[in-house]
């Protein structure tokens, strides 16, 4: 096996040399520190070291990567992130007037989609309704709350807004939208904030905007029934489904592009240094159940201080790093490859095909790691211990794990506290991805299924099955830990007359058989809302629904 491995290594070296001679080198020679980096400090790159149970770097990573995207924030509706942002000059905003052709003089709601604002364009059939279109005339400072922060229901969706407005959560005021926006605007006034994004809540219509049109339109003729009841009138049903479809255009990356977020001012309640009081509150809970309950007054004060700093500092003090792209590059690089590996390792195979199938998986693992497979990292034949724990692969692990962040660290850029949090989130996330992928690849090498390093004797089918079982467990646990929304989709894919829908309030929730009806006439009744601990409401799952008649869920 050793001679075969050496021959393959020479072949790879010559192949790489041909490629490298066609590239323009960044420098005439590699710095001496490069080689010492390869040889030293490998003890921390242990392939058996799993993340801490209470680690939150992957949660910061995924919540940040999901900002302004409807799909992931519908799936996990309780927000954990607050980010300053700007609505750029020239952006059109829409407002369906409920009170006639009068420009709002104080706080009110607008939408970036006319389909949404038309829901509120109401008036008598004989006189029609009034629909306002506004244009932003100078950059408008806003504050964005993630999660389903426009859904004012019990269960946590208003938590972060309450903490900013009132320095505590007030579940009894969950439906008091007017009071909440008034106090948010009062809080934001001293920082020059003119809007809050859950929906877009505008504090002052006379600032930053001008009227483009104020049209007298035909009334939408929408009648209203209890929110979870499917309207009987076909025109109403059509309007509701098309409104849902218009929202779906911003469901996934890049999400809502008409609001520009300042990632250097991001505040996350998963930041364990900023909000340590929530760490013990999350122990043993699934992410669906993470709340702000139990946050200390000291942590609330720290959050508000951090927001104040982010809203008042000059923009020239930031690093200029495009964190949105940094995060997305990681997702784009690994998401589809991990999904394919999960598919491959879960196939049922007989003894005749299992070896070739394992080689196919090994090729894919090698492809992922190829840019990081340093020439010195080859499995030794002499060290039983090294082979058992695969320590020989540590340089590959390290190069893979640091590839997206080493340049940021080495550059010596002065990072804001929020940027240091994001840097750590990327480091923790890529470390675990690369640990698992390197571990799987190294195990395949040592089992003898790597096509470039064939063993003298083909491994037994039982040994390959054991390897496949380990691979299956590794990739399943990794994907569950990452929990990226990009993998949450309708399977099989929806037909042309359908759309993939993630159940959300208020459309599509019906009483569970045997339960009491979830709605009463009084809005303040606790029975108005679906049970937060049951079914689709607690853990929304994607499903195909029709876009054409007959509609239904």
Order of helices and strands: HHHHEEEHEEHHEEEHEEHHHHHHHHEHE
Structural class: alpha+beta
Helix content: 25-40%
Q: What is the tally of beta strands?
A: 12
Q: What general outline do the C-alpha atoms trace? A: globular
Determine the N-to-C terminus distance: 59 Å
The largest β sheet comes out as: 7 strands, mixed
Question: What radius of gyration results from the CA coordinates?
Answer: 27 Å
Mean pLDDT: 84
Tally of DSSP helical segments: 17
Low-confidence stretches: 1-40, 510-529
Q: How is the quaternary structure best described?
A: single chain
Beta-strand content estimate: 5-15%
Architecture blueprint of SSEs:
Layout: H1 2-21, H2 32-39, H3 57-65, H4 70-75, E1 81-87, E2 92-97, E3 108-110, H5 114-117, E4 129-136, E5 140-145, H6 159-166, H7 177-189, E6 195-197, E7 200-202, E8 209-217, H8 234-248, E9 260-261, E10 267-268, H9 297-312, H10 323-345, H11 354-369, H12 384-389, H13 394-402, H14 406-411, H15 417-447, H16 461-482, E11 498-501, H17 535-538, E12 543-546
Parallel strand pairs: 5-6
Antiparallel strand pairs: 1-5, 1-9, 1-10, 2-4, 3-7, 4-8, 6-7, 11-12
